[in-house]
Design brief:
This protein is α/β, with parallel strands linked by helices and 279 residues long. 41% of the residues lie in helices and 11% in strands. Strands 1, 2, 3, 6, 7 and 8 form a six-stranded parallel β-sheet that branches. Strands 4-5 form a two-stranded parallel sheet. Helix 3 packs parallel to helix 9.
């Protein structure tokens, strides 16, 4: 079947440098003045710049950090009561994703699928099925390169924009959220997301189900102290396999959904947690 008409781009958000980035800009300007006025102090200047770049690197490789810009690690307070968000990365996968959709249907749960643009192009009808069943398709980049966080601004923007357009064309639903590969990023990301009206989303907790073959441990990591507002991370693509050869998500997800139901929590999409005026 043909996809619905392509929706218009989202309005841009205003980019505001974080205090860390403001301090970084000020430091670099100060170092230029220092090198011009006190060249004999060059060693101290280089040490200060090195310390600053180490701090930026540490923040960049901490997926749940908001040091480089806004980052959803929990649902907003207004949407949190009685709700959690299950997010599923690296698909769509023709073997795993249909079974995940059936499990979500069984518990009347909704999820946000962070899909890779190139995988969506291979399985477009599966992406459309995700949306038809009431879930959301969000942007996990076009190519899912493991070195995404090392990209310069032009290449990073191209990867995000390509994924955005491919997913919107396939599903008729333009993504509202972006998640970089493994949650790793650099200071170029937030200005790009703001220009496309996208929001960065990480997670409250993850089960490491791309390498953890123990479904019990994955489920425990995700449900330990489960609380309203939590954002959970699982994978339908690149899923680890149990000793029996089953994708771990298929054994862990029912336990997560059962734990949520027992706690009186319902899984919703990230976009449903946004202000309706922006969704």
């Amino acid at each position: 079947s043909l996809p619905p008409p392509l929706p218009p781009p989202h309005p841009a958000r205003k980019w505001r440098p974080t205090p860390l980035l403001q301090a970084t800009f000020a430091l670099h300007l100060g170092m230029l003045a220092l090198f011009a006025l006190r060249p004999e102090w060059w060693l101290w200047g280089v040490a200060a710049l090195a310390a600053n770049h180490l701090l930026l690197t540490a923040v960049s490789i901490w997926p749940r950090s908001s040091g480089l810009g806004p980052n959803w690690v929990r649902l907003p307070a207004a949407a949190a009561p009685g709700h959690i968000a299950i997010t599923i990365d690296d698909g769509p996968d023709p073997e795993v994703t249909p079974q995940v959709l059936d499990l979500l249907d069984k518990f009347d749960a909704r999820a946000s699928f962070f899909c890779i643009g190139s995988e969506a192009e291979r399985h477009p009808e599966l992406c459309r099925e995700i949306v038809r069943r009431g879930h959301a398709v969000e942007n996990h980049s076009q190519h899912h390169r493991w070195h995404f966080s090392t990209f310069g601004p032009r290449r990073m923007a191209s990867d995000i924009e390509s994924g955005q357009e491919r997913l919107a064309t396939i599903t008729g639903q333009r993504p509202l959220f972006f998640r970089p590969t493994a949650g790793l990023r650099n200071p170029f990301l937030e200005p790009i997301l703001a220009s496309h009206g996208l929001h960065l989303a990480s997670w409250t907790r993850r089960g490491y189900d791309t390498r953890n073959r123990d479904a019990d441990d994955v489920a425990c990591r995700l449900t330990g102290n489960l609380a309203a507002g939590d954002i959970l991370l699982l994978h339908d693509g690149n899923a680890a396999r149990s000793e029996a050869g089953q994708p771990v998500i298929l054994a862990a997800l029912p336990r997560v959904l059962e734990a949520a139901a027992t706690a009186g929590l319902k899984s919703i999409t990230l976009r449903s947690a946004l202000n309706p005026a922006t969704s």
